[in-house]
Write a structure and sequence with these properties.
single chain; mainly alpha; MetI-like fold
Length: 265
């Protein structure tokens, strides 16, 4: 017997259990000096994690939107270039992309800059002048832009072509059709998967620790290696990430409900 799907308005018992578990660990952190010291150390990495996520996701959204528009272009060359980028990047694991960008692409960019600088008389730079933090952000931007491009493409294709043709008949140019007709309607379809990608980037930002960037995970590794209290340290690491991701998920779900309520008569 196949169970009926649950209504989206069901009481969130899972949130009650998660809140109770979080309250237990928060109590342990307050009551235990070791937990308090670990939290104070890891809190320094929260800013880095948030910065990497916001900058990387913002840049990925811009590139992803451009790729999605290129996929809808009338130009065969633009469509094929965008498709090539999306399919290749989506096939590379994020951690491999991080290492490739950090130790292959970044030195190549520095070499290209130095060649250009030598040609036009500018000051050359060294590879070490390209910070690992920005290499990590560049890698996350490249990786997530391909996935976000598919989200935007699906949203743009969901808009009824009749409305676009009506806008053309009214004399609206391509930019006005996109800004006034296409994107506002596509945004309602884009928001849920885009929110999921944002939460996923919060978690994947932990991968920048392989480059030594001092985010939450990296500070957790260093702290655990110093005090040999892996259980307590990684409990705090997991709790911080859970609080960030669950809060974001709830906020995005509330925003979706508000948009859905506006659509209903």
């Amino acid at each position: 017997m196949i169970p009926e799907p649950q209504d989206d308005g069901d009481f969130p018992w899972w949130l009650v259990f998660a809140g109770a578990l979080a309250a237990f660990f928060i109590y342990r952190i307050i009551a235990d000096d070791l937990y308090t010291q670990v939290l104070a150390t890891l809190a320094k990495g929260v800013g880095i994690t948030v910065f990497v996520t916001l900058v990387g996701f913002g840049a990925a959204c811009v590139i992803g939107l451009l790729l999605a528009v290129a996929c809808q272009s009338r130009s065969l060359i633009l469509r094929q270039i965008a498709r090539f980028y999306i399919e290749i990047i989506r096939g590379i694991p994020i951690i491999v992309l991080l290492l490739y960008v950090a130790f292959v692409l970044a030195p190549a960019l520095v070499a290209a800059w130095n060649w250009t600088a030598d040609t036009v008389g500018l000051s050359p730079i060294r590879t070490r002048d390209f910070p690992l933090l920005w290499r990590a952000i560049l890698a996350l931007t490249i990786g997530y832009s391909a996935f976000i491009a598919e989200v935007f493409r699906a949203g743009l294709q969901s808009v009824d072509k009749g409305q676009i043709e009506a806008a053309e008949a009214l004399g609206l140019n391509g930019w006005l059709r996109f800004r006034l007709i296409v994107f506002p309607q596509a945004f309602r379809m884009i928001l849920p998967p885009l929110g999921n990608d944002f939460v996923a980037m919060v978690k994947d930002s932990s991968l920048v620790s392989v480059l030594g960037v001092s985010d939450i995970t990296q500070l957790g590794k260093v702290t655990a290696a110093g005090n040999f209290r892996y259980f307590e340290t990684y409990n705090v690491v997991a709790l911080i990430y859970l609080m960030m991701t669950v809060t974001l998920s709830l906020a995005l779900r509330r925003l979706e409900r508000r948009l859905r309520a506006r659509q209903e008569p």
